[in-house]
Design goal:
It is built from 16 helices and 14 strands. By secondary structure, it is α/β, with parallel strands linked by helices. The strands form three sheets. An eight-stranded parallel barrel has the order 1-2-6-9-10-12-13-14, surrounded by six helices. Strands 3-4 form a two-stranded antiparallel sheet. Strand 3 (39-42) and strand 4 (51-54) form a beta hairpin.
């Protein structure tokens, strides 16, 4: 299986041994951050530093001043990595080590942007703003995200890109000094707390047939038992993504099924069209053969870095998906099977069978399920940092299980953060996979 390791530019820039160390893991690709959110990251082997603090979301290359001139929403530069183009410096070193470089672009997750432009942020049913979560239904946000995707993805030296957070962000954030765990929230309650009630979303709900104030009131009423200590979501724990969605209906009450579907229709439509527009923007800026993958969750209601998608739709217009697969076999099955089922259905169609015998560069990209490319990538994303819940020691077994579920590539999170022991386990695991 083709394997790629995630990296930040600061893992490589200034460390003459970093690129060769990554190549020696046995990966063929480095997925290198070009636009990233704020973070505090350990660099356990770098000769010049041990901790990098990225204070805010930023691009790790020099942005095009002409593209962003006069625009309120624009990417921020950075000053925590030396040099004018940390991405470019790291990409060249990785390519010299024999690795194919793909860009890693975080889109709808930017706390500084939301803090400076609060009107663009998701606003929950109680009126609270989430500055880290720009509302993707807003036209100005969509224009910014598509232009950012095109610019950050197609960097010199990159042969493809992976778009993270290309969809809704919500309540969950991993915020610094987070104090939100006092009342446990199920996936269903998290979803209701992630619904947006900015003026654009309220107009959208109303246009679909239910006054926005009615939607807001229903959500507030549904969450009252959660704040009072009732189990948040109504017993869907352990039932995976489908159970989460049933829990949404249970919280709102069965008689409000039409309201649930209305909200879902509005949000799914916003996410689906943004994903198509972002992929199209990248392709318009890239050369032929440039791969565009989305970090994706097969449950459309989910928010966050792995944005909820419609598996049939995303595999019809993107070159593939990167799917979160950390956890046990059951969690991996729940994440991968919806994508595998779409590919299996499309592979039985005459058009797909004909394409499978055609060289990839000659295969036409398409826009319907019946034309889903037979070569769509499903990459299983496995955490390989033990302290972050990863299982590098079981990489070979986990990769084999993912392959049995239809995954054809691996993503390893994260080669820069992992300690030496974890990297040694990765080398052994990838050797066994080969």
């Amino acid at each position: 299986m083709r394997a790629a390791a995630f990296l930040y530019p600061w893992d490589v820039a200034g460390d003459p041994d970093a690129a060769r160390r990554v190549a020696d893991l046995g990966v063929q690709q480095a997925t290198l951050a070009a636009a990233y959110h704020s973070t505090r990251a350990l660099t356990p082997r770098h000769p010049r530093h041990r901790v990098v603090t990225a204070r805010h979301a930023a691009v790790l290359y020099p942005p095009d001043a002409e593209r962003w001139a006069g625009r309120a929403l624009r990417p921020y530069g950075q000053d925590w990595v030396a040099g004018p183009d940390p991405f470019g410096e790291a990409a060249r070193a990785l390519a010299d080590a024999g690795l194919e470089v793909h860009s890693w672009v975080v889109l709808a997750h930017n706390t500084r942007l939301g803090a400076e432009h609060p009107a663009i942020a998701v606003r929950n049913a109680y009126g609270d703003r989430y500055p880290w979560a720009p509302c993707i239904a807003r036209p100005e946000v969509r224009a910014y995200l598509c232009d950012l995707a095109a610019e950050a993805a197609v960097r010199p030296g990159a042969r493809g890109t992976e778009l993270e957070s290309c969809g809704w962000y919500g309540l969950a954030h991993l915020h610094a000094h987070d104090k939100t765990a006092g009342v446990p929230l199920s996936g269903a309650a998290q979803y209701l707390m992630s619904l947006c009630f900015c003026e654009v979303c309220e107009a959208g709900y109303t246009a679909l047939g239910v006054p926005a104030r009615e939607v807001r009131s229903a959500v507030v009423r549904a969450l009252e038992p959660v704040w009072a200590g009732a189990e948040g979501g109504g017993g869907e724990a352990g039932e995976g993504r489908a159970g989460e969605w049933r829990g949404v209906g249970k919280l709102l009450g069965g008689e409000r099924s039409e309201l649930v579907q209305l909200v879902r229709s509005w949000r799914d439509g916003a996410a689906r069209t943004l994903q198509r527009e972002a992929v199209a923007a990248v392709r318009a800026a890239a050369d032929d053969g440039f791969r565009v993958l989305l970090h994706a969750d097969p449950a459309g209601h989910r928010c966050g870095a792995n944005a909820g998608v419609d598996p049939a739709d995303v595999l019809a217009h993107a070159d593939g998906v990167v799917v979160p697969c950390t956890g046990d076999d059951a969690a991996r099955t729940d994440a991968l099977m919806p994508f595998a089922e779409v590919r299996a259905r499309s592979a039985t169609l005459p058009e797909a069978r004909a394409r499978s015998a055609t060289p990839p560069e000659a295969q036409a990209r398409s826009a319907t399920l019946s034309d889903t490319p037979a070569v769509s990538v499903v990459a299983a994303n496995l955490t390989v940092v033990t302290a972050m819940g990863g299982r590098p020691g079981s990489l070979a077994a986990d990769a084999a299980h993912a392959a049995a579920l239809g995954a054809d590539e691996l993503r390893l999170y994260h080669a820069g953060l992992a300690g030496d022991g974890d990297l040694a386990a990765v080398r052994r695991g990838l050797a066994a996979v080969r």
